[in-house]
Amino acid sequence: MTRLPMNQTTACSGLVHARTPWFARLGVAVGAALALAAATAPAAATLYKWVDANGHVVYSDQPPPASVRSEVVKPPPPPANPNAAKEFADKEDTVKQRDRKRAEDAKTAEQARLATERKREVCANALGQLKLLQQKGENLYRFNDKGEKVFYNDDMRRDELDRQQQIVRDNCPG
User: Fold this and answer.
1) Please, are residues 171 and 122 in contact by the beta-carbon 8 Å criterion?
2) pLDDT of 38-66, one tens digit each?
3) Whether 88 and 71 share a structural domain
């Protein structure tokens, strides 16, 4: 008998000889397992339906004899998410709440803008009134309920001056 070095192999009826190193045998085993998995994967996914000679409906993952007419049955759809409707409703509620919040924020911002604009107008008007009231030589008047002119005397002028100064303090910045 001829002695072979440890890294060589001999063929014996198509099998790998026992003197083959372990990593070579492992590669062959892994290759065979992958080939077997690849060959059985499509067959496992296919379901056949046919009627046998006795008239019974047969379902099988193995194809029927060639003489029998068969059909491939489609697999059932994956199970639906039982929480899908609730999740959709929750998302819809979240979107509605976010939109409602945005609308409220926009309304609040608009109200604040209008209030600031109104204060600016009141301030400008009060400053104008103060300027007139502080001019001593001017005869000032207002209209009463009947539409008649009522001229300001010194007391009325002083009261109006105090009122306009308070408006300026309340509405004018600084």
Assistant:
1) yes
2) 554 444 468 899 998 888 999 889 888 88
3) no
